[in-house]
Amino acid sequence: MRTKDTDSLFAELKADKRIERFLTDNQEEFTLPLSQYLEQLLVAKGLEKSIVIKESGLDRIYAYQIFSGRREKPSRPKLLALARAFSLNLEETQYLLRYAGLGILYPRNPWDSIVISAIGQNLSTKETNLLLEKLGETQLLE
Fold it and tell me: Is there a domain that residue 16 lies in?
């Protein structure tokens, strides 16, 4: 369980030149693999994995590989498709993107702006793709 904020971790890291000790002392502070975070989201949202996968529009096998951890780095559009299937709000979506080590949605980017708008309207993955297509942009899943 996490007990330290990020600033505290930065301070410790800068103060201790022995990275091995820092890593050992702070194991519980590090983020879980994406697959475990997604499992936590399922529980928190009270959703079933099979339904989220179906709603995401992702290939079923590929999506199960993300959830199992066999696909550790899904692309940004694929992760956004999952975010829409989870019905995550903008803050939750941005957190998921950061968690996965991907760039957050940026309103100065037209494609990102459309996705932000879709999130604000709580559009499904399919509806988000239709909106992107209508506005001449690449869909989440092609």
Answer: no
Q: Give the dihedral sign, CA 122/126/127/131.
A: positive
Length of the chain: 142
CB atoms within 10 A of CB 21: 11
State the total domains in the chain: 1
**CB of 118 closer than 8 Å to CB of 131:** yes
Tens digits of pLDDT across the chain (142 residues):
567 888 888 888 888 778 888 888 887 777 788 999 999 999 999 999 999 999 999 999 999 999 999 988 999 999 999 999 999 999 999 999 999 999 999 999 999 999 999 999 999 999 999 999 999 999 998 7
The residue whose two tokens read 């100065």 is 108
Full residue range of the structural domain in which residue 85 is found: 31-134
Tell me if 54 is assigned to some domain.
yes
How far apart CA 72 and CA 38 sit, in angstroms, is: 11
